[in-house]
Write a structure and sequence with these properties.
Elements: H1 4-36, H2 43-50, H3 54-58, H4 63-83, H5 92-109, H6 111-119, H7 126-142, H8 153-173, H9 182-195
Length: 201
Amino acid sequence: MFTDGEGGKVAGARADRRDRVRAHILQSAADLSREEGVGSLSLREVARRAGYSPAAVYRYFEGKEGLIAGLVLEADSRAAARLKDVSPELPAGDRLVRLALAYLAFAHYDPPQFSLLLQGGGRPAGEVFGVFLEAARSGVESGELRPGKGGGAEAIAYSVLSAAHGMAALGRTHSPIADLDTDAAQRDAIMRLVAGSAPAP
C-alpha cells in the first residue's frame, strides 16, 4: 500500500509519462505531416515512427481526427507564441497591425503549421484569437479604439485576424498577382481596417 505522499508521487509520475508519450506521438505526427501533408496523415505510420502500436496511440488520441485536433492545438500555441513577441506597450492600433503582420509572417515561414490551422476549420483559433482580443480590449478600454458593431472588442479582433488569416490562405491557393507588391498591399489593407476602428476626430 502507498502512503498518501507516495500515492501522489506515483500518480504524478504516471501523468508525466503520459504527457511525454503524448508529446512524442504528436511530434512524430508533426514530422510526418511536414513531409507528406496533413491530408496524408496515417495513424498507423505515426504509430510506427513513434515506436508504439496503433492501439497504444488510440489510448491517447481518438483516431486520426483526434490526432489532427492535437496538432491544430500545437500549431495554434506556436503561432500565439510568435505573436507574443509584439510589444504590448505599443498603441492598440499599431499593435493590432503588427499582430496581423506577425501572423502573416508565421504563415509564410512555417507553411506546414499554418496548414494545420486551416485544418482547424479555417477560422481563428483559441490562443491566437486570444492575443488579438487582448489587444483590442486594451484599445477599447483606453479609448484608442471604438467598439465594433455587434461585438465590441471581439468584433475588432475577429475582423483583423480574419483579414490576416484570409490573406495568408489566399497566398497559399493563388499565384502572385503581377505588378502587385503583396507585402505592401497587405500592410495597407490591415492599416485601413484598423483605422476604421479608431474614434472619429
